[in-house]
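Here's what a typical entry looks like (Aminoglycoside phosphotransferase (APT) family kinase protein):
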Amino acid sequence: MARSHLTLAALATAAVADLDVSAAAAHGSTTGSDYDSALLNGRTGEHWIIRVPRSQRAEARQSADLVALRALSAGVRGRLPFAVPQYRGQAPLGRTRGIVYDFVPGEHLTASRVTPGSGLPEVLGRGIAAIHSLPTSFVTDAGLTSHTPFEAMRSTASLVDRAASTRLLPAALLERWEAAIQDHLLWQFQPTVVNGSLDAGSILVSGDDVTGVLGWHDLQVGDPARDLAWLLGAPTAVEAAFEAYNTARGTSDHQLRHRATLYHELELAKWLLHGTSTKSTEVVDDAVELMGSLVDSLQLDRSGSIGAGSTAALDIDGVEKLLSSTERRHG
């Protein structure tokens, strides 16, 4: 049962000394979410969010997010063209806890809003470039994960192997993904700071401006293509976004787009594995259907491999279905 916004407001006042709350309201979805959340208004115009996890998975993610937010010092945040949640305090609640953050205004982005001419592709490209231009030292100093190109390749190979073991992975995709993994040129990149779990739902916007980025639980040093993969879900705007990104960073990573394509496609493998691990026939059938759609689109595009000029992805209907599936998986 979801906790009421009044209960959460009372918990927030216990978490943060002198928190003067004048009003509270439920925030986000009250069903299907991993968290109970409330938006709190202060008497002098401040706004805060309190979140209480509903599951052990959500609690682990929130704990990792808190470590990352603490690592993002004021100096680091000052290099970003958008806001990042600021931790204010916490209080125990049963076997878990509620955490209070400063509220970051904005609407959650959807891939359908990222269209040519809107200005968003360029703003997103530059914003992601700003994350990747941060000094890696603050991540390693915080004891967070750091992956070499070889480790990124090995992790990808493990994911494909696990998907193949279900015997539900189409042979065409297995061949395509294994060829990409074995292409040593694809994995020649300079690791950067990455959000690690960036997608449209973690980005807040107002008009054509990015106001904030949420969800830093996978903050690490790793492959920058991971943060760009979700842009393949906005196929009409992806060129502008990547061009803005490359211009901002001055990158010479010629395989960046190809690895992003690979990571984008591998969301289907993750969805399949989620279905098998939870024994959900509905999810497994959904993943199999989506993989079939991808195979069909690749055949129409005559694209057999990643890294040989191919950037084929799902058609827009398949992308939207994949994104909605991914949102269900991440809660």
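The domain at 108-330 is CATH 3.90.1200.10 (Aminoglycoside 3'-phosphotransferase; Chain: A, domain 2).

More examples are in the samples folder.
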